[in-house]
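Purpose: get a first structural picture of the assembly so the mutagenesis plan has something to point at.
Setup: two entries, given in the order below. No constraints added.
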Amino acid sequence: MPPRLAKLLAFVVAVAMVAGAFWYRSRGEGGGGGGDGDDGAVRVACISELAEVCRTVLDGDGFEVTVADAAETAARLEDFQGEAPFDVWVTLDPWPEMVDVQRAAAQQPGLFPAQVPRPASAALVTLARPEVGTDARSWERLASRAQAGDNVGVPSHETALGAVVEGQAAVGIEGSSDFGSEVFDELIPVLQGVVDSAPRLPSERQLLRMVALQGSYDAVVGPVFLVNRVARSAEAQRQRLVVIPTLPAARADVVVARVAASSRADQAIVLLTGETGATALRGQGWAVPAGREPTGLPDPDVLVALREEIG
Amino acid sequence: MKRRWAAMVLILGLVAAGCSPGSDDGITSSDGGLGDPGDCVVVDLAVSSEKISLMTDLAKSFNRSDEAKVGGDCIFARPQSKASGGAATLLGTEWDEDAEGPRPVVWSPASSAWGAVLNQRLADRGEKAMAPESEPFMQTPLVIAMPKPMADALGYPGKPVGFADILELSQSAEGWAAYGHPEWGPFRLGKTNPNFSTSGLSALIAQAYAATGKTTGLSKEDLDNPKTEAFAKGVESSVVHYGDITMTFLNNWFRTDREGTSLTYASAVAVEEKSLIDYNAGNPDGILDPGERPRKPRIPLVAVYPKEGTLFSDNPFIVLDAPWVSGQERQAAKKFEAYIKRPANQRKVLKFGFRPGNPDVAVAAPIVSANGVDPNEPQTLLDVPAPPVVLHLLDKWSEQRKSARVLVVLDVSGSMKELADPDSGETRLDLAKKAAIEALDQFKEDDEVGLRVFTTDLDQSGATFIDLVPIERIGGNKEQLRRQISEQFPRNATPLYDVTRESYEEVLEGYDPKRINAVVLLTDGVNDDGDSSDDEQQLESMLKVLREGSEGESAKPVRIFPIAFGAEADLDTLRTIAEATNAAAYNASDPKTITKVFTAVVSNF
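Result (structure tokens, whole complex):
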């Protein structure tokens, strides 16, 4: 098929899907949520890392998109009184489960279904200075380097990716994803040494700073598409920065989670998990669909405890 | 503490707005040939002075481009030069558009640390932050500039060099003799005043980190540690003099390079990498006047990247969250930001000696080893401490800096009675007295300050000067200085050369190697001692004495910092006098700027 025709067809399909979503909504057949009949805008919370995807896909009067770091939205979902503040949360796995862990601890009912759609994912890799090289393959070695004064970039604690990378680092240092808080006495000081070794900023800012402000970071862990994008820049190549897959392999999965069985969530979920969402996610560099294997991260309750410890 | 900080930053702002050694640059901008904005959406930018040429250049090309459009309207970017600390003060207090130019939509200080300081000051008053976090669009690291033979003698770059080595050198009784070069004399360090200069502030932070062995998380407790304090005092002890801008050092270095004496003027100066590139290109002040052809120095400088780590001047592009910034202006500013981050324009940034902020443009010439810099450095970057720690550091510095021994020499000739401010009715002398009295508060208790006034026929024997207050610790004689200054009145003629020489010799006689020894000379005229026939000879003879005293490995440098006060002052001659002692002349041709200028002069101590 000629490329122009393919583009045209993709466009027509996308328009049809959006129109379909609106038609679906106008019928008031939310499906799966209890059909409360409220036809107000769909309230979508979206993590900062996916802001552009959400704004692109949900660009219409029927949606009210709130972009915030995962920790901020999580706090609102853990504490709200009365009506849930959102219908849908577009975030990374396992943030919805982490919210439910906190709610369970506060004897509140869970908000999220057991299975949520995972439209995309990205492996976590490390952009490293040449002298760090293959040490970036191992979190144990990265931890040793951090202890020796190297600056290892872990994304902001408040971001969705921050928790994912913290989880991967913990698994790497511990040597297994099957652990609980009984190992924290030994694990936390090492992990803390890594996360405190360099300023914690959103992933993309860390990567850009690593290249532009030479000496700021020796290694930065982030999603593969962001890391590759920066690594291909002329300055990164001049500095001979290298991309290293950090082991154990871990992945950030995008999830589109219906909040509190909201009946208004469907049209957003349809768009985000359908071709429109896939196009936008691919455009950002995410792999569509998400991988099927486990993400390689610790259990959500362990991640919650980890986050509380390292603060 | 807050008041003190506010005062310091205010001083910085005033100085930046009003004076520079021997020039008017640093004053709020001209339009730089930008022209009339017409009906376009104007994006006013306040940018630090070292990048005004670059930003004006970029604004001109942007304003002509198809990208300068927002919602159907054209955009007109209009940069003005504002020293970073000064702009921080103005944004945190009141920006008087009549005096300071238009309030900016965008602020680009040399370092994002100034944005944090502004936000901290607003937070202290319960006001919301005005400077959101933003990404740098270009940067330049702080380096220790050293003449190449000296860097070679230390084994750099084969052997890393840092502030610890500077401390060791500064405390060595042998000085450069320990490295086989007794002819270079003691180790002499040039640093700008951190209350005035971003590179001075960066150097102070780097020095504090070096003392603690940390690269992040510098705390107040670290600064109060006796080991850190001793380190700081040791480094400061080797300082030649301070100053408000690094150009003073670079211009002096360049001039002495022509004379073949640069190695005994200063051994090292903390400057930005970009300035070092300019120097080695033969353009020490970074500004090429029309028709000026740069001549490379005989002895180039080498950028030493301190082994303990350094900081970048990261030049953030801050679209202000200020009530006067409209949504349309904000959008227009973002367009200009996107424009300057485009690879083609980032290559222009590189041409000016800055490192590009867009990684799609690789660091390349002029940031190459042939120009004395290393594109693969720095290897270690230091964190900017939290604003309260920075304030504490500045407070500590005011006590730890090298003490001064200064004779203030005040012209009380008849011309000082001329009206200087028609609004207030104050004369030149009224303004000078007020400025001198205010400047006394900038000295620290341990500084030694004296007062001399001069004119002809001060007594029946025809004395040309009177020493009203001997040079003693200001902690004990400040009131006496205030009183004596305030009692002065205009009298006769201006025996400038005679008194300048006598004052220099007076300070030289009591020379104290542990202090900055200096004369601050304020005059509103030309030499007039009643006999003009020998003026030229007098001047030449004096300059010979001054130069001889300032040169050589065992020189006892006494710096003369003249202030040319009023339009009739002989600025060219005063500049020659300053240069003969490797100091700088200051221009207060508008008498109303004298307070700012006096403040700038005292920043050297």
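Confidence is low (pLDDT under 50) at residues 1-30 of chain B.
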